[in-house]
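User: Some background: our group keeps a shared notebook of sequences we're curious about, and every so often someone picks one and asks for a predicted structure to add to the entry. Today it's my turn. The entry only has the sequence so far, pasted here. Could you supply the structure so I can complete it?
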Amino acid sequence: MMRQEVVGRRKWVTDQQFLDLLGASNLIPGPTSTELAIYLGYARAGPLGLVLAGGLFILPAMFLVLVFAWAYVRYGALPQVAALLYGIKPVIIAVIVQAIYGLLGTAVKTWRLGLVVVLGGGLYLLGVNPLVPLFGLALAIMLVENRGRLTARGRSPAGGHALLVAPLVPVGPGALALPAAGAAGLATLFLMFLKVGATLYGSGYVLLAFLRHDFVHRLRWLTDRQLLDAIAVGQFTPGPVFTTATFIGYLTGRWIGAVVATLGIFLPSFVFVAAVYPAVPRLRASSWTAAFLDGANAAALGLMIAVAWQLGTTSIIDPLTAALAVLAALLLIKVQINSVWLVLGGATAGLIAKLVTG
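Assistant: Of course. Here's the predicted structure to add to the notebook entry:
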């Protein structure tokens, strides 16, 4: 849609420029679609265009998710809502499975990257913080793939090629932990989502691994059910899946929490785009950043697989939910039907099942 609008209809950038910006969006952490919108705004109108394009790309989805979050908190315990979510959750698992299926061919280019997928998922299932496999395995692949250059030059890649890796050292999860008293400590909420926005590679569904580790296991502010409900709303509404942060922010801190969480998760994208935009041609040609991205994407895929398995066990609980998950996955992979229709179908199936069973 972006290409049709800015290349075909308005001719703001050329196809080559568009591809360069898309490649740069994949090289930095954060939501690719949002960052591409920010890049295009920057290319068209400088810093002001950067802010306008990014803000207007995010705000409609944020407001929609806020409405759903308010309704969820107010009416979420009603039997009708429980029935809707009963049918929606297995479809969301199928959507994640389709994302994994579509990314496998792109992410697993070599046996080394296949091993990274396995190690990334395995380490997460063993309880390791998701940042460890994501960055550790990405750095390992970068070094292995460029070992010949290291030997030939007799030096490490920490010179001019460290442009991507150096700014990505994450803020520790306990850097400014405030106790949650009813609503979450706003500083903690902001830092949690700032960390995610500053370090997350791969599909938006990798978000699940980070959120589950921090909000379900470590802080215990959410349950698995609430996390999957948040992802369901992020998927169901138009816009980036990262607006899941808006939903979680509302659950833990109401309106101000929603704003803080949304600001935290999207802020790094604006900073990274502003910093990287002048270096886009160099990033595209660098073997170091290309190898780092390959490793990060493979590790992210491993995290997606592990979390899909864990959440699947809480969502697929009987023959009907199993059938919904399998049918949705087949339709998504074979027919490539829009996932919104499947989410609506799952919700309808959940309501019908509730009526039939009383």
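Suggested note for the entry: The chain has two domains: 65-75+110-303, 78-107+318-358. The chain has a mean pLDDT of 81.
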